[in-house]
From TrEMBL:
The lineage of its organism: Eukaryota, Metazoa, Chordata, Craniata, Vertebrata. GO terms for biological process: SCF-dependent proteasomal ubiquitin-dependent protein catabolic process. It comes from the Eukaryota. Keywords: Ubl conjugation pathway. Residues 32-73 form the F-box domain. This is F-box and leucine rich repeat protein 18. Residues 706-725 are annotated as: Disordered. SUPFAM superfamilies: L domain-like (SSF52058). Residues 84-664 form the F-box/LRR-repeat protein 18 LRR domain. The keyword tRNA processing does not apply.
Amino acid sequence: MASSEEDTSNDGDMPPTAAAVAVGAHLLGFSDEILLHILSHVPSTDLVLNVRRTCRKLAVLCLDKSLTHTVLLQKDYEASEDKVKQLVKEIGREIQQLNMAGCYWLSGATIEHVARCRSLVKVNLSGCHLTSLRLSKMLSALQHLRSLAIDVSPGFDAGQLSGECKATLSRVRELKQTLYTPSYGVVPCCTSLEKLLLYFEILDRTREGAILSGQLMVGQSNVPHYQNLRVFYARLAPGYINQEVVRLYLAVLSDRTPENLHAFLISVPGSFAESGATKNLLDSMARNVALDALQLPKSWLNGSSLLQHMKFNNPFYFSFSRCTLSGGHLIQRVIDGAKELRSLASLNLSGCVHCLSPDSLLRKAEDDIDSGILETLVASCRNLRHLNLSAAHHHSSEGPGRHLCQLLARLRHLRSLSLPVCSVADSAPRSDRVPAMHAVPRGFGKKVRIGVQSCPNPFSGQAGPQPSSVFWSLLKNVPFLERLELIGSNFSSAMPRNEPAIRNSLPPCSRAQNVGDSEVAAIGQLAFLRHLTLAQLPSILTGSGLVSIGLQCQQLQSLSLANLGMMGKVVYMSALSDMLKHCKRLKDLRLEQPYFSANAQFFQALSQCSALQRLCLVSRSGTLQPEAVLAFMARCLHVVVCHMFTGESLATCKSLQQSLLRRCHGLCGLCGLCAPLQHPTDPPTPRDCVTVFPGRAARAERCHLPSAPRGPDQCHPGRPHGAPG
């Protein structure tokens, strides 16, 4: 055998291989621009407290203004109180934008250190613990602040704000305020507001059972300054109290509509009756302003001629969720007779069952859409990036080029898309979908099972995408799609986020029976996909399409699966386990499936998702193995939200929580809940589902579940590009 010296000498005359070059190249040999780009993906706490101490060059680069100008601590669950304090001490004077949204584990005393960042222009403290006095002390030191996000919790008193604090607030131009109690918060102090985002999360009753009322706001400063307002956005959680309080905010707007208002959006679950003040407001808006973004409660639009009189400038966002808007009205009043709207980036038509038909009064759910209306819409809004057509039956008629998927394929700029399952089915069932009902025994050979394909699958057990399907062609033409939602028209979650739970859900649409594993496998074409929701697909036989997604969609970060296949049996467990082994970047997982068995096999596969942070399991009559859960939590130290609602007994759930409390230790934030799901109408809302494991969380409140499949009352999947909030 030749010696290693001989090998080296013989290879000396050969050109260096790529591996040798890679080994010889040192990270610090890259240019500063490349290194700065790499360092921009490192969490700020690691960057300043660890990486900076490795060598002199990195010590200089880590303090570059491009890296210290903006600090993101949101969802940095390993940012302990000591790390945050040290970070502010090291680079506090350089920070101009600070995002601490959702840092619920940090104490108020730690949040108070933000006052040392004297150059702050923008700060987000949503979800952080702040009293009125602490907020006053902190804002008094931030004289350059122009953008603020805070929570207003019970006990907030604007009278405790100092003169210096109010002076800072008077210069704030953007305010995001989440209300957990009836209050105007700091809005009356913000006399220069241009952008106001309001989130109403007020419960109808206090913890003691007392009924809340908007009359608690009487006596507070009730003169919000809206004269410079350009963007008004309000999102309401369910409950009459939230509607009562938002009316008080709108009352000021109805007296004098800001001349520069160009975005007016109100997101309300369910019905929201129109009042005299809101009618005056809408009439004033129709006369005096030209909007670029509009979203109103369905009761304000249904049966009114508001859209006919409303003026639009360069609209970029429209939401008509659950409105009885016909296709004819959509073309005439919104698109202005097929006028080209290149500026429109986001369109939400979820729940608009008549939006693709010429007449809303005569159409039935099973009727085919008018492809001419959709074709006009696509031609006029060719730059759409976000489109929501969910929660409706959009059936395509037969004919070349008339299918909904074929028309949507022309929208090459799409980044997020939400469709009902029945809309992606071929107009006529394909030959490969027809079960072998007429199969007969072949002589004396092996009999062919009825309903099972007689030929082996060339994809070795995986359902391969069918190039002949219209859904496959659609996804091929929108390769940069980042968010996809495929939700059954009749789907209702057992634990919806912003709607009451429905006891008896409707059966799937008949055309949804033509959408199965091969269509799911077609999603694997989307190499840039980050968020995926699949709900109420009854024809899933094995779930083999999920494996294709796991193998090819390597950017996937959020996955929500609900009611796939037959309801009485989980048919895709094996495929899901194989899929999870490849999802190395998955952070959020939500499973809603009756009779789901969260066993050792499932948690063993899930533990290979090394980036997983949030898990939610909702399973009526489902089971779980406590030992498997404990082993999973011991291996996956990054998990900070673990909510499981199954058919297990209350004693089993409490025992599991106590075991986790004793064993889990080391990270900053963990919010968990194990509870029996007695009935779809019984489980508490996500805002109430909070149980803290102190081993990982110093303090935790209102840690939301991973997203349920969104209802039509919510804004377009994800945050619409260009939309407030």
